[in-house]
Model the fold of this input.
Amino acid sequence: MYIVNKPHPAIYQAFMATEGLFGATQENLVSLNRHEPLASVRALVCCVMHLEMWVSVEQCATAIHRSRDSITYYLSKHPDRMETDDEYRESYDALKIRVEKK
Done:
């Protein structure tokens, strides 16, 4: 069962791709758990939705039950993590490819 009543198609697609790749369900992503690796997966999903799928910051925040400030924080850290964190970059690319296939 998914929490979003009338999901934006891109958001639904991103949640399904995330579950398939990382095993993190929508319930996991909206939970209050701030520990790794779930926190990084949550940031990945938001960055892919916003940067690749043109989902607004507000829609991303609503979808994962976080503030717009949280999404803005994920987006501000994204360029640095893409340069310095190989695992993050590989996961981002894998999720991006997965959502492009749908």
The chain has six helices and no strands. Residues 7 and 87 are 29 Å apart (CA to CA). The chain has a mean pLDDT of 90.
